[in-house]
Design goal:
Blueprint (H helix, E strand, L loop, with lengths): L1 H44 L6 E9 L2 E2 L3 E14 L8 E2 L17 E5 L4 E6 L7 E7 L2
Parallel strand pairs: 1-3, 3-7
Antiparallel strand pairs: 1-2, 3-5, 4-6, 6-7
Length: 139
């Protein structure tokens, strides 16, 4: 009799743990999927998600804290180097419409105002694995 109760309790515990794991693991994947499709819709079809007028990106731990930001035309993105190591903000495609900072020491900032709709990919010229994108959408 004790063995059957133990088996039932074990099965119930496994079901609860399994359901909990499914809930924790499945929910972020769904949220990430909707965020990604929302970003692409926002940049291409003028989705109802309002772009930020301005955005701030911290450079910390050899990464851009907000590697993907969206602003409206005329919006400014400001990058702040919070690392003790120098970094840059360098557009993947050089253009007067894309960011190109000097080397930023710790605590220095660089701001760029985007005037044209488009996706602007960028990286740190000193650490090419550091990458980001600014999506500029019509207001």
């Amino acid at each position: 009799m004790k063995k059957s109760y133990l088996a039932i309790i074990t099965v119930l515990v496994l079901l609860v743990v399994g359901a909990g794991l499914w809930f924790v693991l499945a929910k972020p994947a769904a949220q990430n999927g909707s965020t990604q499709s929302g970003s692409s819709q926002n940049t291409s079809s003028g989705n109802s998600i309002a772009p930020s007028a301005n955005a701030a990106v911290d450079i910390k731990d050899f990464a851009f804290s907000q590697s993907d930001v969206t602003v409206g035309v005329g919006g400014t993105v400001t990058w702040t180097n919070r690392d003790s190591t120098p970094h840059t903000v360098t557009a993947d495609t050089s253009s007067s419409d894309a960011p190109a900072s000097d080397t930023l020491a710790q605590g220095q900032t660089y701001a760029f105002t985007f005037k044209k709709v488009g996706d602007y990919t960028y990286h740190c010229a000193l650490h090419p694995h550091m990458m980001g994108t600014v999506h500029v959408v019509a207001n």
